[in-house]
Amino acid sequence: MTPYFPGHGDHRYRVSHYDLTLRYRVAGNRLDGTARLTVSAAEPLQELDLDLGRFRVLGVTVDGMPARHLLGRGKLRVTLPRPLLAGAAAGVEVRYSGTPMPVPSPWGGLGWEELTDGALVAGQPIGAPSWFPCNDRPSDKASYRIAVTTASSYRVIANGVLAAQRRGAGTTTWIYDQPEPMASYLASVQIGRYQVAEVAGTRLAHPARLGTRVRHDFGRQGEMMAVFADLFGPYPFTGYVAVVADDELDIPVEAQGMSIFGRNHVDGRRGFERLVAHELAHQWFGNSLTVSCWSDIWLQEGFATYAEWLWSEASGGLPAAEHARRWHQRLALLPQDFVLADPGVDVLFDDRVYKRGALTVHALRRALGDEVFFPVLRGWTAARRHANVSTRDFAGHVQRAITRPVGPLLSAWLYDKPLPPLS
């Protein structure tokens, strides 16, 4: 299978921990950073390739020793002062500065984005190098410490738990710890003039002027969390925060322990509640269970889309079966020109991938029955908690849990181009 983003990531090593110390000036969009990576070699190494955007690299050390380095075309090549044996670990420190710029992609710029008054990070799938040096592949998950210093009039929200908040002369440093393993594209920083509120057991960050609408539109998020915990298993992280930026965004974005919405996703009528459900569901499907390869994206987007239908069903809206029927009719009228289990980069985020993925989950639910399907689903999230997953892993998990063959059903939905019937 051809890698979707061959210019990103390096399988010759892994990163177990990132320690990011950042200073950001909102006026001028200036970022100064020190990144400390704990890396381990999968094979003997004499050099290390890190993914990093257009910054000025001020210095690199490996285990405290200065290292020669060259940055170009999105890669920071570090010549190791001494070879690293397979299985050996090293501490790599990179000091860098500059204007963070989004990473070009078929879907526009990804990663660090300057807002009207602040900044946000939306990294899926290859935007992480826009703000820190990393091994940018979803199969390399690590723990994180993220410290950001900026003007005290702004609040910083990052992945994990707020461990400390230190005030200086006109600035505040916000320090977050993310102990659960996280893929680089899910690392995120949000900077803005936010108020933080607790609503129904979940946290909301939003501009003050949008408070009433945000509290209403996200008012059922606690109930949603309880429904998903019952259907999918316990929530996999320490906390969760939904951030509403004071800018319009094309689509909401999930990060680990966090979701980011634009002000245009808040209308005071819960008109975008399905998206609230979708992003929350990604905490199980995408963030805890992360695909090893982007070709398996249906395991994230298909399940998150099906969660929209499950929330509709649980909250008094249309049942999932009716959503499935309507979307099956719509998809049947569209081109059947991709394979769900390997759709290709061009249609990676096509709505057909999302909806056919959800239909695959619904077809499996119909075949197994609720009394079997939901325990199988909870077993899947429990067995692969905080790990990487693939389509083959999922098919194997389902087959081990039941006695009758499930291969023909999954094969038709995942590997055949024509849309199978729902019956």
Automatic annotation (TrEMBL):
Transmembrane segments: none annotated. Its main location: cytoplasm. SUPFAM superfamilies: Leukotriene A4 hydrolase N-terminal domain, Metalloproteases ('zincins'), catalytic domain. Signal peptide: none annotated. The keyword Magnesium does not apply. It comes from the Bacteria. Its EC number is 3.4.11.2. This is Aminopeptidase N.
